[in-house]
Every structure is written in C-alpha cells, then in structure tokens.
Amino acid sequence: MTTSLRPENAAPNPVGIAEATAGDAAPGEGPAPEETRAHPDGTPADPVKALLRRHHALCAGAVDPLEIAAGLEARGVCDRVAAAYRHRDVFALAEELHARVERGQESERTAEPAPRPAGDGPCAVLRAGWGTTGSLAWLWLAAYALVGDGLVVLLLHGRRGLPPQALASAAVTAAAPTALALACSVAPAAWCAHWFAGRARRVLGASRGLAEFGRRVRPALLVTVTLFVGALLAFLWPARTALPAGPSPAAPAATPSSPTPPSRRSAG
Amino acid sequence: MRVGLLSEGGYPYAAGEGGEWCDHLVRGLGQHDFELYALSRSARQEDSGWHALPGNVRRVRAAPLWGGPAPGSVGSAYGSYGREQRRRFAGHFGDLAAAITLPGDQAYRFADGLHGLADLARDEGGLAAALRSELALRALETACRAPGAHPAAYSAKVADLLVVSGFLERALRPLSLDWYGSADGDRGLAGVDLCHATSAGPAALPGLLAKRFFGTPLLVTEYEVHLREYYLAGTETLSLPVRTLLSAFHRRLAAQVYAEAALITAGDGQARRWQERCGADRARLRTIHPGMDATLYEAVGEGDLNDTAAGPAGGGPALVWAGGDVEPHLWEALAAMRTAEPGVRLRVLGRPPASGSVPDGVAYGPAVGPEDYAAGDVVVLSGAADGFPTALAEAMFCGRATVSPDAGAVREVIGGTGLVVPAQDPRALAEACLALLREPERRARLGAAARARALELFTVEQNVSAFGALYLEVLSRAPVQHAAPDPSVPFSHAAGTQQPLSVSPRAASPTWAGRP
C-alpha cells in the first residue's frame, strides 16, 4: 500500500541520498526548497518531512518503528492523520519516519550516560560499614583475635591446671601483635577494595567484550592483592617487634592441657 | 470451570492497573472458580495490600518480578549443573539471545529457546542463577557479535550486557516458579481448565508454560497493549543497545503469546490494530469493550431525560471539559463561542493551573462522579484520551451530548451519538459546541442515543457475559485432557466421561462438567 503511493512523492527514495543532502542544508535556515515546492493539488511535496522535524526527538531516540508509532499515537496522530501523509496507518508512517531520521547525533547522545555514578559496589558497602554495625563488627573481630583462641582452648580443655586469668593473659600476649596488625589493616583493605571497585567500574564502562574486560581487570586484581598483603606485612613486622611476645604462641595453653586432649576428644 | 487468572502488577493488588475489570469479572462469573496467579512489580505494590476477594477465588499465588531472585527456587541450584545441563542452558539461552539480536523473523528461534529454558527449569531448577551467570553473559555476547546482528546490538558493551541479562532474569522468572505442579502434591496450573492472562507480557508466560506442559488453553485480554505501554513508559535512561535488545525481547514475547493464545481480546480498535501488527491472527481476535457500573449514572442519566427542556440550574449554557488537562486551543474556542453566545460558562474537571488566573466564567473542580456531568449541557472531551476514553463513556451514561476530538478510540465509542471534531482545532470545536448549545432538542436526542448506546455496549454485565461466553468457546475448542483425574477433587470425572465405545484414546470432556 505504502509503496504503491510512493510515486506521488517528490523524493523517489525516502531513505535516499537526496534526502540527506537536503537535511544538511535545512536545519538552520527554514524549510528546504523541495518542501516548499507544492503539488498541483496544494499539499506540500514532502509532508512527512515537516512531521519528521516536529517529532525529531521522538524519532531519533526510537529504536523501533513501533516505538515511534506509540509516541505518535500519544501525541494525537491517528490513522486518519496518517492518511493525510499518504500512509495507510500510523505504523506505516512510523516506519517511514524511522527509516528517514538521521541518527548522527543520537548515538552520541545515548553513549553519554554509560559511565554510571559511583554509589554501589563493594566500596559503598565498606564505607557503610564504618557506621555502628561496622564498628561493632570490627571490635568483635579484634577482640576475637586477642582472646578468642585462648577462650576456645579454655572451653575445649576445661580450666584444669591453670587459673583462667593466667590462661587469658598468656593468650593475649601471644595474639596481641597479630590482632593489632589486623585491626590496623582494615583501613588499607577498605582503600584497596575502593580502588579496585573504581578501577573495575571504569574498565567496565570502556570495555567492549567480556574477554577484554577480564584482560584489563586481572592486573588490577593482582595489584590490589599485592598491595594489601604488603600492607599487612608492613603492619605485622613492627607489631611483632614492638610488643613483647610470650615464650611461644601455643606453649602456655598447650602445656597444662597436654595430658587431657586424647581423653577429651574421645569423650566428645 | 476452574480459571487461572494470570496478572502482572495488576488485579489482586490494590495498587495496580486493570484491577477493576478483573474484580468485576471474578464477581460476575460466580459459577466458575478462579485461581489468581499474580506477579508484582514493586515492593510498594506488595505493601498496598489486596482487593477484597470474593468466595469463588479458591487460591492466590504471588511472586515478585523485582528485586533479587528468590532464595529457595525449585529444583537443584545452578552450582550443581553438570556439563550436560550447562550445554543445554547455553544452547537454549543462545537461541533466545539470537532471536533478540538478529533482525527478521526469528519467532521459531525465540519459541525454541523459551521452551528449552522452561523444560530445563522444570527438570533441573536453578534457572535464575544460571541467567545471572557468566555463561549467560557469554551467550549474550556471542549473539550480539554474530554476523548480521542489529547494529545497535553489535555495539553493546559489557555494562549493557549486564543490564540486559539482569532484565532477562527478571522477565523470565515465571519459568522457574513452582506453579506447574510440585513434589508435595500441589498441582498448580495443572489443575486449571483455562488460563486467562491480563497482558501479553511476562504475565502470559505461565500461561505459555501451562499450554506446553498440560495443554491448557490460553486466553489473552489486553485493555492496555503491553508493548505500547512499555514504549510509552519511557526508557531514555538506558543506553541504546539495551533499549534495542529489550524492545526486541518485548516484541518477540508478545508475538509468541499472540501465536500461542487460543483467543485474544482487545478493549478497542486501536488496541486491536496493535495486536494485529504484532502478529495476532485476525481470526482469533475479539473486541470486548470495558464495562462500567451503569447504576452509578442511572439517577443523572434518567432524571435528565425527563426534564431536558429545563436544563441545569443557573446562568447561561454550560460546557464541561472532561478527560484531562486543559489544552490551549480550548481558550481560543471559548473566546470564539463567547462572541456568539456571551453567557457561555465552562466547568473544567481537574486541578486548576498552579500559575495564572482563572478566566471569568470558568470554574475548576475535581472529578467526583456523575454529578459533574449533570451540571453541563454539553460535555467536551480532551484529546489526551489514550486508549479507551473513559470520560466519554461516563458522559454517555449520563445522557449528555458530547463533542470529542478525533483521537484514539473515540470514534468507535461514540458511534453516531455525539459530535467528533478534528483534534486541536479551536474553530471546529467552537462551531460544534455552538451548534449543540443552540439546539436543545438535538442535544436531548443525541444524549438519549448516547445513553442507549452506552447501556448496550459498555456495561459491566455485557463485559462479564462476553467473557463467560468466551470461556466456553475456548474450552469447547480445546478440552482439557488430564491424563489422570485429580483424586483430591470429588467427581472430577463425570460418570459419562468414559464413552462406551472408545472413539478417542483420551477422555474428551472438560473436568468442570462433573464438578459441583
């Protein structure tokens, strides 16, 4: 139906080159010459062009002729209006608009929102962790690192042999350097995670394929882990040298309970 | 008969579109049992609560189409997929992805992929996690980079693929629900005789699966075409490749639903044209106009017919603007009318504009009910009516003469019982209004005809009875054939079901025939 009506149009090929050159000249200085040239019956030679200009944002942003049809219908263009543009229905009109619209600016326009604002991902979780619950969890971890081992040994083997105070103090002295280093390394861990997340997000926005993404993220992951391990070691070494460690980490807890474990284990 | 009513963001939830007609339907067809299978769209909707449900709603099952995947989905987890299952998943999802990215007629591919994924979800489970896995991303990427793929799909980046796969996981969530019979004896959709989907989007997916697994016929009703709704909802925040892929998915899904449905109904001609455009077979399309409660308008409609000549109280002739915000051309039309008839008053149903003064002789008021129309001699309809013009039907029920713009489904609703003018044309609008204001007898005649037409076409009763007849029609064409009668339902097989001479190997009578 549409194609049979096309010979009436002045532009023989709606998608063609003639259209593109006219469009280049048109934007600034009003209607293109071919549009003003009217048919003998009084209607403009290319009425669709005016419609295209009126709904340019809609047509350029649409990914599908049906999307244009939905937009046109919402703006009051019905089948009877489409008949004035020499089309059978809105869908046919939308197809012509979809075929004729210039998409130069549109790809730039939609490419722009690709980098998303930071606000999600692991760094946000970590930053949110600095609140009450985060501090509580941190305290809990540090406390466990300090006295947790000793308490577990105490529960497992009973308080036979040594008084609990002595056990606890021995455990604290043994685990104190590790706990201190771990507690201090939370901040570098958060920073490393933040850096890695930011890096990965930038790569994600830029990379075109999964393989490329993997290739570009893997070094960053390696660097992050190395950085953190380095920071941890850097904290561990001064902590161990500064704090006087006990005679041996396991010795005070192990000596009093050494006769009991086999029987306990078999009982348990 | 037991009907499974499938909805998405609709009926049982108080906050949602399409709740009213479903409510009328379920209440009006009290002789049938209904099971509601509802997909919710947001947490806000779930918090809004449900409509009051009548007694013939036997069961309500709901699942969210938002947020993360449900933790306890049926079957085994994706982590336990073996090599064979991974191969199956990659093949079927690859089909689905190729159907989305490649142009041209890919309906068979889409159907293959969808059915394959449905079978996989039913056999193995874990589909939600698989759709979020790297395997799915790789399949999607391969489809986007395939030769001949849509240019916009070809330019998709990793971030776009992530967005699309997340969306697909949500849209395909109905595949991994436990609505299709579970191990604990719950028969789900296997126990219904007919699936009635309220849109051709994800809501119809359970219906497609019930048809595939149990042979249950599917009836699709769209008062708002899902695809058009999707386009109008606005997706400008997404990137071009994402929008291209999502649009293709919605198109293919709608085409698949239309192809599988036994019957498709539309609310008006515009919706029907959309459905036809998306691949619905014209022979299976029916138009069932939405129904409105006629008793609300009885007092105004009938009362006015008796004393038409007296007209409404006070002042000069009055116009009522209904159906949306005031459009600029109305003021021009009003000015033109006042040069001929100085006493014309205008009442606008809607909020007054925040800025600017209200012109003389113009009153604003919220639309509360039929009394609004009683105050006017002529009702003027705004051109913003998208889809079915409800305000126009209300005015017709009230027996008012109307002047409507030529847009949407106005022409088929009004028939010949009111004036139709070109949209956005102030002079035509003014002339039509003046012609009606000057001729009270013509006004009364048109109003009476409009009311008669509305009572004939747009009542709840006609809507409900049309659906009741459609149910029987669908069922008479595709009798449900349960392999074994449900032992939990007494008299689930009638005595006459087994014919003495076995004409057909399977029982050919619907189960509802024997139910109390």
From TrEMBL, chain A:
Amino acid composition bias (Low complexity), ranges on this chain: 18-33, 251-268
Residue ranges of the region described as Disordered: 1-47, 246-268
Record protein name field: Integral membrane protein
Membrane-crossing segments per the record: 136-156, 176-198, 219-239
Domain of life of the source: Bacteria
Keywords linked to the UniProt accession: Membrane, Transmembrane, Transmembrane helix
Automatic annotation (TrEMBL), chain B:
DUF3492 domain residues: 1-282
Region annotation (Disordered) ranges: 487-516
Domain of life: Bacteria
Pfam families registered for this protein in UniProt: DUF3492 (PF11997), Glyco_trans_1_4 (PF13692)
UniProt xrefs under InterPro entries: DUF3492 (IPR022622)
GO MF assignments: glycosyltransferase activity
Entry protein name: D-inositol 3-phosphate glycosyltransferase
Organism: Streptomyces triculaminicus
